[in-house]
Amino acid sequence: MAYVIGVDCGTSGTKTVLFDESGAVIASKTIEYPMYQPKNGYAEQEPAHWADAMIGTIKAVMAQSGVNKTDVKGIGISGQMHGLVMLDGEGHVLRRSIIWCDQRTAAEVEEMNEKIGREKLIEITANPALTGWTAAKILWVKNNEPEIFEKCRHILLPKDYLRYVLTGEFATEVSDASGMQLLDVPNRCWSEEICGKLGIDMSMLGKVYESCEVTGVLTAKMADELGLCEGTIVVGGAGDNAAAAIGTGVCEDGKAFTTIGTSGVVFAHTSAISIDPKGRVHTCCAAVPGAWHVMGVTQGAGLSLKWFRDNFCLSEKETAKYMGVDEYYLMDKEAATVEVGSNRLLYLPYLMGERTPHLDPDARGVFFGLSAMHTKKEMLRAVMEGVSYSLRDCVEVFREMDINVSDMMACGGGGTSALWRSMLADLYSCPVKTVTSKQGPALGVALLALTGAGIYSSVPEACAAVVKTDKIQQPDPENVPQYEKYYQLYREIYPALKAEFAKLASLD
Question: Strand ranges (DSSP E) for 157-218?
């Protein structure tokens, strides 16, 4: 039996899972670490913490499993995207990593638009300039910490720093590199034009691979420390969402997934590149060679339900504690007693502004149609429906771009709710499924490692062999037209309030 290791370097911690070639979990371990916020809007982490967590978790799963090290055929790494890791000529870290959720780079985004132009940025990098992405962070260091920028010889993403620790190689792969805004996304290579106009030396960027390609092998020193064999392959791996796609079997046209976590993501695979000229959704290279994915983001998805729970569901919390169940389970049961449309109550989930399809930091949450007849349970259902309408907005942009969405997986905390899955099925007009494995990105990069090791001949073949469907929620033919009426009204509310949101934001 062959085994592979999947490492997932997240924001709160690193999770490592040892899988066999059928995708069964043999052992798993997570080690957490802090995030630093030295100023409002800043977010940083220590790359050394990621490295220590990776080393600790790999050693732990090998010790737990009793698997012979000669049977471990490869390692795949997934990671939080967009983080900036800067190394000097000796390979030493120069400063804490500025990570994905850092928002300090507004001036640098303007600089990118001035030097390159918004349309040209979208044409080459497939996305508008964004504060959270890597290029703006490089410019921020260049503008604000010139002494550090002068010493910099290597620029890596978080998971690619871990690759360097394992193999000594400076490399990346297309899915994660797509989130740097330095990659020519249609051609899957670094953009000379972008780097030249931003004054970024391309020699600082790692070699670009496809996600299932072998990028290096374990050094003797690391193999000895980890209890693995020298020469064990390390494949490209993937950014977290691209890795989650492989872990849920989203690797062919028509396949997509919806994640309802704090934010909501709708992610679709496409074998032909498609870029939204309005920049409402992100287009990146997929972890499948020669393919791409598009991704829409709802800022306040699960966050909306958590906000409602924390402020209005204290009795459900107490009852859940008494019954020994999750409070969200009771909230689901309450919402299920209300009919489609929540008695003509709609909710806009813009608690944190919005990204898709309205790139508007000033947008705010709204209950629309609230009257004295409404109770807490209608408001609860309206929150769940409003998040679902917002996710449908993402799918509508995909359809404008001629991207087929006919096979939808649901994951994240919200994906465990049968009621929420039924809302999505009715609004998407397609089946919504879950998968048996809950390992997501770790399984995804393990499948990439199995492909790189030659155990499977392609990424789709690996997915077909390993990823299994669990539950299937079909659209309800009676609910579909009902939801459609409410959704069309929902679409009219934001444009009617856009100017008022801006006025509200400008008030003292």
Answer: 171-173, 183-184, 189-190, 207-209, 214-217
Alpha-carbon distance of 335 to 452, in angstroms, equals: 46
Q: Which amino acid is at 315?
A: S
Question: What is the mean pLDDT of each successive set of 10 residues along the chain, which is 508 residues long?
Answer: 97 96 97 94 96 98 96 97 97 97 94 97 95 96 98 98 98 98 98 98 98 98 98 97 95 95 93 94 97 95 95 95 95 97 98 91 95 98 98 97 94 91 97 92 97 98 96 97 98 98 94
Q: Which two tokens stand for residue 466?
A: 């390993």
The residue extents of the domains of the chain are: 3-236, 249-432+485-498
Homologous superfamily (CATH) for 3-236: ATPase, nucleotide binding domain (3.30.420.40)
Range 249-432+485-498 classified under CATH 3.30.420.40: yes
Using a 10 angstrom Cβ sphere, with 0-12 exposed, 13-18 middle and 19 or more buried, the burial of residue 376 is: middle
pTM of the predicted model, to two decimals? 0.92
CA distances from 11 to 3, 24, 79, 379, 437 (A): 26, 25, 9, 32, 21
Catalytic residue, chosen from 20, 160, 176, 240, is: 240
Let me know if 402 is a catalytic residue.
Answer: no
